[in-house]
Amino acid sequence: MVSLTGKDILNGEQFTREEIDLIFTVADDFRDQLRDKPALNLMNGYVLAALFFEPSTRTRLSFETAMHRLSGNVIGFSSAESSSTAKGETLIDTIRTVDQYADIIAMRHPQIGSANEAASVANAPVLNGGDGAGQHPTQALLDLYTIRRERGDVNGTTIVLCGDLKNGRTVHAGVEVYKHFQYNLIMVSPEQLKMPADITSRLRGYGVHIRETTSLEDALAEGDVLYMTRIQKERFADPDEYERLKGSYILTREMVERIRPDLTILHPLPRVNEITSDVDSLSTAAYFRQVRNGVFIRMALIALIMGKV
Amino acid sequence: MVSLTGKDILNGEQFTREEIDLIFTVADDFRDQLRDKPALNLMNGYVLAALFFEPSTRTRLSFETAMHRLSGNVIGFSSAESSSTAKGETLIDTIRTVDQYADIIAMRHPQIGSANEAASVANAPVLNGGDGAGQHPTQALLDLYTIRRERGDVNGTTIVLCGDLKNGRTVHAGVEVYKHFQYNLIMVSPEQLKMPADITSRLRGYGVHIRETTSLEDALAEGDVLYMTRIQKERFADPDEYERLKGSYILTREMVERIRPDLTILHPLPRVNEITSDVDSLSTAAYFRQVRNGVFIRMALIALIMGKV
Amino acid sequence: MVSLTGKDILNGEQFTREEIDLIFTVADDFRDQLRDKPALNLMNGYVLAALFFEPSTRTRLSFETAMHRLSGNVIGFSSAESSSTAKGETLIDTIRTVDQYADIIAMRHPQIGSANEAASVANAPVLNGGDGAGQHPTQALLDLYTIRRERGDVNGTTIVLCGDLKNGRTVHAGVEVYKHFQYNLIMVSPEQLKMPADITSRLRGYGVHIRETTSLEDALAEGDVLYMTRIQKERFADPDEYERLKGSYILTREMVERIRPDLTILHPLPRVNEITSDVDSLSTAAYFRQVRNGVFIRMALIALIMGKV
Fold first, then answer.
1. Under an 8 A CB cutoff, do C86 and B288 touch?
2. B21 and B149 share one domain
3. What is the pLDDT of residue B240?
4. Most Cβ neighbours (<10 Å): which of A135, A193, B31, C181?
């Protein structure tokens, strides 16, 4: 019997296919239930700590909304400056402290491995909401869930990954979540921001057919799903290199209509300029539905981890 | 039948006299009900997003308190730095994202027109909590409500507006809310901070008898209500001009007692030095009651907009 | 009949022995009740304002958790920058404003006497969560509570106070809370950071046997409880002096095992380097249990003050 009770959510690798199916089934069920009422009575009286050592609108508010839609409470902070980190406290001490308060912890932190470090000392389950250029497993799950909802199935699709594939944690976490499915991958990036070779070879090991290119238009001609990502300013040591690369790929409505009108378009957001706003009104532009899916996925994870389903 | 269900609250112009009366009636009713209990069970499970791109104690906490006193939940942020704006996200994308989370959105933003822009893309109703030097309609409503409560009626009163009438969004939003009433207006400001001519002529068009002066003492002799405002540092490009003007008008207890002992004194707060603290204990100093009225007005607006009354 | 209903919690001096016993009894009772459920239904619909003019993870989240575990709601801010203080508002005006919103106020502020100032104008009870180098009475209570729980009794123990005894508000608040008990005190600090003479003489007046030393090892040989404190960077005008003194006392596991293996170790946290991390796994290292005790103490205080017990 598959169960997530008491588990941490740290990376994309940890999930079995059965666990993914369970999470998606619960997410679908919660979505249905929320058509008739604003919240479910599953986590009344429980406390989620949302510890965001880096700014984030989307992920932080998504976790908080998920907890509220389960009737739970939220404590936390939205920047390292508002926390005792400013007084020189280590991550581990902050986590051990919050562990005395909360039943479950969601966190984002700039350092790779920080969520694992937190999970190693916390009694409360830890949900990794992004650890620097490392992992972002709840995002990977909601992305996969969105493809499944938009296209019916992940199997058999051709997914175009575009943007900063070197630093994108969403993309790295995704690789391991998607390994349970059969799909083709076209990776589009500037030479300097290519997917790390070890990840590419791992993907090939999972039987994924991969093509690498620097041309977005070429890739779109064959793609079913475009997963666009932002060139992340905060990952560049050299501001000049960021300036050179940030405009590398820009998806316009004209491109979609000309090359692939039924292209399903995803983006983890925030975007800067890599998808023009005239794309937003296309019925296949799924990135805001993707945001909403994140709430259901995180509700499912919280409820499953806390043994409330 | 008057209804506010599903409406945005964007500016002072939008209200009919019937809507204003409805809001005030509901606010009075909520006030009565809260004498016996800390909260009403009207918004259980619902989520308000409080998006404050500019710092604010009063307005943000007022909206949050209003939502809690209706048994609802709150998500949000209290500065642009804690949001994805820091990563270059547009206001519209932030709103579209939060729209996937919240049932209703309250926001403050430094740019004029930002709340309208937000409302144009959000499915959730948007409450404008201040858009730069633009509008601040919930403040205008609570000001009017306070005058009605303090003096019994707005009709027939002489209101003295004093301070920065050029940049004060509270004042500008107020003009359109007050048009449904018959009152006299005395406007007191330095020459550089006079009410814009277009607003003055609109006021005259509504039949308001207006007198402009640079002398607060002259105005007080005739006034029933003083609406004092702060010279807002953050609206000045030139810090020297701010320094020159900030001490232009200072209300003291001595002035009130000498000129107009039954003067009703309002202020949208925060104040810097424009009302001395010895005024606070006068029974007609109404600015902290005004703050409390804001909670009832915002409760009424939230409940009416969400169709819970 | 002892009652705390409607009282402010401002300093360590205010408590009678009977009040301390009542708070501890209620804290013990809440702890027991929370073994079976995540929260108690005592403060439903009530609003706590957590006003933190200085950053704090521990104290702010502790108050917020306490309120949530009583089923109440929280509003507030976590830094002066997010409040109207940035617009030049006085503390008193901010408090008077929040007083219109909240049923109870917890606050931290950098200035000594700020909580008293707040309490003098607020109708809502005020809980002092630290006023600069002044007082921190809820911390003093939770420290005492922790010693009682860890050692069975405070009477008869020898407590070693170590670190910055000059500026440590925790320590100063503690003196007056501990006066109801009979214990020995060994004070360990650099010459520059000694306990102020007036406090030492007050302690002697309460019958406390005091020894002052600059050697931590000497003190440990006689101590039952070590109360370690951080040399607080933010209390030093001269950064060089901070650098000179910050490494004065460092407790290691080797020291504990060699000198006093059954030493109960407390720390108000955050720590920087004054207790090495290998101490954490000692069964007598009580500082994270101390954090958890803080939630029960604050729950007890809130419920007692609000007349809910």
1. no
2. no
3. 85
4. A135
